[in-house]
Amino acid sequence: MRDRVDRVPVVVQGGGRRLGRAGLARLLWVAAEAITTVGVLVALLVVHQVWWTNREAVAAAREQVRALEGEWGDSLPVPSVPGDDAAAPSDSPAPPSSSSPPAPPAGSGGGTAAGGSAPSGPAPARDRAYAVLRIPRLGLSVPVAQGVDKRAVLDKGYVGQYPGTAQPGERGNFALAGHRNTHGEPFRYVNRLRAGDELIVDVRGRRYTYVVGQVLGETSERDTGVIAPVPRSIVKPGYGYDEPGAYITLTTCTPEYTSKYRLVVWGTLKG
User: Fold this and answer.
1) Which is the catalytic residue, given 180, 188, 206, 253?
2) For the chain, how far is it from start to end, CA to CA, in angstroms?
3) pLDDT tens string 104-131
4) Which CATH fold topology does 85-269 show?
């Protein structure tokens, strides 16, 4: 008995390792749930931006077109058939946020209407729709409002007129901006326009028909020359015009779903 050695019991903590693995598993599960939730939220945001805002803006823009046509009543111009000059009124001179359009140049206002006719009047109230742009090639009818503010104009699905540019039918440059993607995306397919296509602007009983002359596929967002009274790109001087006249300019973002560059379509008033 004297030779017996007292033994101290040893307890092995094997459960700690198992608890550590369980905790790691729970952490990974929570992280996976968080990532999934974030992914779902991002997907919903994309759906809202790309699909729902389009539906809302398109519906609102169509309603505004109907409201303008109802307000004009009997003075509403009869839509012309492409190539049928007789459809235009006899007193009318017979061409993309989601984005920040180029700043309008100073002193780019109207002047005398082409063909010696009177100007269409003072500039409309800011941010209010006052005209309808129709592009037969694209099957498009969209309200035109004064100003290019995103929230007040462009995000409504409207086309916005650059402040200080000429009024429809006037000598100078009637310059417009519109979204290429989201919020009604009225200018999504303006890249399909070709020389000779018609751009029709209706303003309370008056119809102004412009004919597409040039398309500038890509230029800088700071290329203010494209909306000058005599439009000519200051980035790509080979594109544009040299002589005064009555012009229309459509600008939008390019490539699609970006705002890196601007796509420009020019037209001249049909006389």
Assistant:
1) 253
2) 127
3) 443 333 333 333 344 455 668 888 999 9
4) Sortase; Chain: A; (2.40.260)
